[in-house]
Design brief:
Cathepsin D, subunit A, domain 1, mainly beta, three-stranded antiparallel sheet, six-stranded mixed sheet
């Protein structure tokens, strides 16, 4: 799926369709439903936290932060993403500078460089 590279954003963000907190045997899980590449997938995270994110318009909101693997071309890396309803945005994935730092160089003249 396409992602927007945004060097102005500190953290990366991932679109979700549904979030649910549940407790099993005293352990809290965050169960998330994603719509990716035309397929609906559900994944549970035992390691998650809430963080405050300031948007480009200056408003702050609390979001869940998860860690997952992401494939970018031939690279498979572990990265952190805040979960946000991006259904009204063009790109469901936003890659921020924390994800890019030390891994990638941004060529602002390019588009769709990974095919």
């Amino acid at each position: 799926m396409e992602a927007k590279v945004d060097t102005g954003a500190y953290r990366s963000a991932l679109h979700y369709q549904r979030l649910r907190l549940r407790t099993v045997d005293g352990v809290k899980y965050l169960t998330v439903t994603f719509q990716m590449g035309g397929k609906r997938r559900t994944k549970s995270f035992k390691a998650f936290k809430r963080v405050t994110v300031k948007s480009s318009n200056g408003e702050s909101s609390r979001r869940y932060l998860i860690s997952t693997r992401v494939r970018l071309g031939p690279y498979l890396v572990r990265a952190q993403f805040t979960l946000f309803d991006r259904s009204d945005m063009k790109y469901q994935v936003l890659l921020g500078r924390k994800f890019l730092r030390g891994r990638f160089v941004v060529d602002v003249s390019g588009k769709h460089l990974l095919g």
